[in-house]
Design goal:
Blueprint (H helix, E strand, L loop, with lengths): L7 E7 L6 H6 L3 H4 L5 E7 L6 H6 L7 E5 L5 H11 L4 E5 L3 E2 L4 H8 L4 E9 L5 H22 L8 E5 H7 L10 H9 L4 E11 L8 H16 L14
Parallel strand pairs: 1-2, 1-4, 2-3, 6-8
Antiparallel strand pairs: 4-7, 5-8, 6-7
């Protein structure tokens, strides 16, 4: 693997993710991804006060890993810092509470061609009640399709999307003032530059957003969307992992 000039950069912001970070990074090891594509992983520590960084450092020998710190609190700032640091011509966005299936890198990278300038995937959860798991896993890709009918494009889900670096830069990048919905905000601008492709091949992410109840979890997503795009509030926050 070419460490100095990778084809792909994977950017993962992290704030107090000691419970999930090891499983997430393990799924991105070369031995797990089984790809010949050269890639780096950029972990953006967003002022973690737990063991997140210490646990992540254990993976430095098994992957091309860089750990950087972003002092500005918030997902928009953390993602933007990682994307700015990326060396690859394609950047993949990842979350630190997400497990990525074998071939995830190739799935996203190979989908970006022609008019497709960015691509995103579905997700599923496995750690809530059987009913909640089933309802969320059934509804998530369908919500994405409904959103496309409403907006004219798919959203770029921060837990799993890929984009050409040149397109990301041309779009103006992430809004660093946003602490939530920074990925959807970016999607509106990217969609003007090319096609966003949706791939219904889910990554597994934490169901912690729904631990207080299924409808409370959905409400928080809707609330932050309305605050960001209707009332134009920039400092909104997901309550599952406050920033």
């Amino acid at each position: 693997m070419n460490n100095s000039n990778p084809k792909v950069s994977i950017v993962m912001p992290a704030f107090n993710e000691e419970k999930y970070i090891e499983n997430s990074l393990f799924s991105l090891l070369e031995s797990e991804q089984k790809t010949k594509i050269s890639y780096e992983v950029i972990l953006v520590d967003n002022n973690s006060s737990d063991q997140t960084v210490k646990l992540a450092q254990k993976f430095a020998k098994g992957m091309n890993l860089r750990i950087i710190r972003e002092d500005r609190q918030g997902r928009g700032a953390a993602r933007a810092r990682g994307f700015d640091e990326a060396r690859g011509e394609i950047i993949l966005s990842a979350d630190a509470d997400t497990v990525f299936y074998r071939g995830w890198i190739e799935t996203l990278v190979f989908a970006i061609k022609g008019e497709v300038v960015a691509t995103t995937t579905s997700c599923k959860i496995t750690d809530c009640s059987p009913l909640a798991n089933a309802l969320i896993n059934f509804s998530q890709p369908r919500i994405a399709s409904f959103y496309r009918l409403f907006s004219g494009h798919y959203w770029l889900a921060g837990f799993s999307f890929g984009i050409l670096k040149t397109i990301y830069q041309k779009s103006g990048g992430f809004n660093t003032s946003l602490q939530a919905q920074e990925d959807i905000d970016l999607s509106f601008r990217v969609a003007k530059l090319g096609k966003i492709k949706f791939i219904n091949k889910p990554v597994i992410f934490s169901g912690r957003r729904f631990k207080k109840g299924l409808w409370i979890g959905f409400y928080e997503y809707i609330q932050t969307f309305v605050e960001a795009f209707v009332f134009r509030k920039e400092k909104n926050v997901y309550l599952d992992n406050p920033r």
